[in-house]
Amino acid sequence: MEAFESAVRAAFRRGSVPEIVDNGVTGQIVDTEDEAVRKLAQVLSLDRRAVRRRFEERFSATRMAKDYIQVYRSLMRRPLLLTDADPGIRMVRQLMEASVNGFEALCLPIEDRKSAEE
Question: Strand ranges (DSSP E) for the chain?
Fold first, then answer.
């Protein structure tokens, strides 16, 4: 993963490579060594800044924190099988909300917090 952060690569179509490499944007996915050699000129011509931007969009800690917050907030919006009239359920819901807000405050820069709520 770290190698894809700032470097342009030719990578073999194995494991998670197709999920990580945006073929033609952050690298080239190849099936053979010969194909890797043939794709070398294309790989070297890719824009390193674009590679870095795509990495930040898809794999940065901020992006992942936003995704977690979105999941937590969606879970908090779901109806509970037990009613909020039960003091224990109210307390659990309040603790969940405080935890999500605290996680958000710790993990996200101020300008990103609003977009995580959407």
Answer: 9-12, 27-30
Among 12, 19, 18, which Cα is nearest to 33's?
12
Calpha distance 57→61 (Å, rounded)? 10
Whole-angstrom distance, CA of residue 95 vs CA of residue 30: 49
Nearest alpha carbon to residue 67 among 111, 99, 19, 107:
107
pLDDT tens digits, one per residue of 37-94: 999 999 989 888 888 888 888 888 888 888 888 888 887 777 766 665 666 777 777 7
Identity at 94, one-letter amino acid code: Q
Tell me the C-alpha distance between 51 and 42, whole Å.
13
Residue 26 token pair: 């952050």
pTM above 0.85, yes or no: no
Token look-up 């996200």 returns 108
